[in-house]
Description:
disordered N terminus, mainly beta
Amino acid sequence: xxxxxxxxxxxxxxxxxxxxxxxxxxxxxxxxxxxxxxxxxxxxxxxxxxxxxxxxxxxxxxxxxxxxxxxxxxxxxxxxxxxxxxxxxxxxxxxxxxxxxxxxxxxxxxxxxxxxxxxxxxxxxxxxxxxxxxxxxxxxxxxxxxxxxxxxxxxxxxxxxxxxxxxxxxxxxxxxxxxxxxxxxxxxxxxxxxxxxxxxxxxxxxxxxxxxxxxxxxxxxxxxxxxxxxxxxxxxxxxxxxxxxxxxxxxxxxxxxxxxxxxxxxxxxxxxxxxxxxxxxxxxxxxxxxxxxxxxxxxxxxxxxxxxxxxxxxxxxxxxxxxxxxxxxxxxxxxxxxxxxxxxxxxxxxxxxxxxxxxxxxxxxxxxxxxxxxxxxxxxxxxxxxxxxxxxxxxxxxxxxxxxxxxxxxxxxxxx
Length: 416
C-alpha cells in the first residue's frame, strides 16, 4: 500500500500496482538526473564520466555499486616493463599498498589456475606425504600479518636525476596477508627432524623453484590465500602463494603447488643462473635471502617541485631482519643527521612511515635518509656497498638515496 498525503482535497489511501510503482521510480530518476545548470547527471555512469554540478548538495549522487572506484582525479598506476611493474611509492599514503598497485614480478607471465582443481603436494622427508586442496588449507586455523615484499633486484638509477621513487625501488609493497602457517602443515605431514631444506615449486609456466631453509618454514612462513581482506590476486599468486616475511621476493614462490622436504639445497636453475652474485676475489654469494634495512624519501622527490619554507619530509623504511629502530634524515648532504619521527605501529619486517619537519631556506642542497634496524645494521651508501661487494651491482642493493633540491625547487635523484 502507498498512502498519499491526507491534506485537504487529497484522495485517501489506494492500492498501487507494482508496474506503476516501478514506472514512477524510473521517471523520478530521470527528473533527478538534471543539474542546476541543465546538464545531465546520468544514473549508472561511472565516476570518471560524471558531470560536476555547481552545488553538489542539490543533486543526488551516484548510487551504490558492486565495486568501489577511485576518484577520476586520483591517478594511480604501476609502471610496467616486460617482466615487472612497479608500485607508485611517491603517490601513496601510509604503509599499506592497495592490492591492485602491489608490484609484480613474473618469469613467464601470470598463469590461469582453477581453484576447484588446485592441489598442493607435500612430500620428501615427511612421515605422511599428503595432497591438500584449497578447501583443505582453509580448514586449518588461519593467521594474518602485515609485512613487506621486495624483489632482490629492487634498485635503479639514472644519470640525469629525472627518476621517481617508483622507478628507483618500486619493487616493494606491503599488504596484510592471511593464510595457514607452514609450521601447521609441517606438523600435519610429520616433517623429519633431519630435514634442513625444502623445495618450493610454483605452478606457472616457468615452474619457479627455490630452495628454502626448513627453519624458516617453522619460524614464520605462511601459505597465503588472502591479501588485504580478499583472495590473493592472480598477479600475486592466486590461489596460494608462499610468504616468507623479510626474505627476497623470488623465494616467496607464487602459485605454489609442491613442497619437497630434504636435507640439502636443490641448486635449481632459478637460484644458480639468477639470484646468485659474484662478490669479487672469485667468490660467489648464494642464498642471500634476507632483505637488508632500507629507506627512501618519497616526498619531496622527483618529479615534485617545492617552495621555500616549511616542508614535511616523508618516506618509508623497512628491514627483513626485524623492526626499524630509527630513521635519520640529513638536509645538508650527509654532513649532519637528525632523527625522524616513526609512525606507529612499528611492525616486524614491515614498512614503517617516517616524517621530518624542515624549513628550507631556498638554497640548493641534498636531502637523504638512512634506516637502522633493531640488529644495529645501518643502511650504507652506494660506494660502501660497492666496496663490500667487490664492485658487483647485482642483487640486494639498498643504498642511501639522496635528492638534490635546486634553487628553483625542482627535486632530482642523486646517487650517493
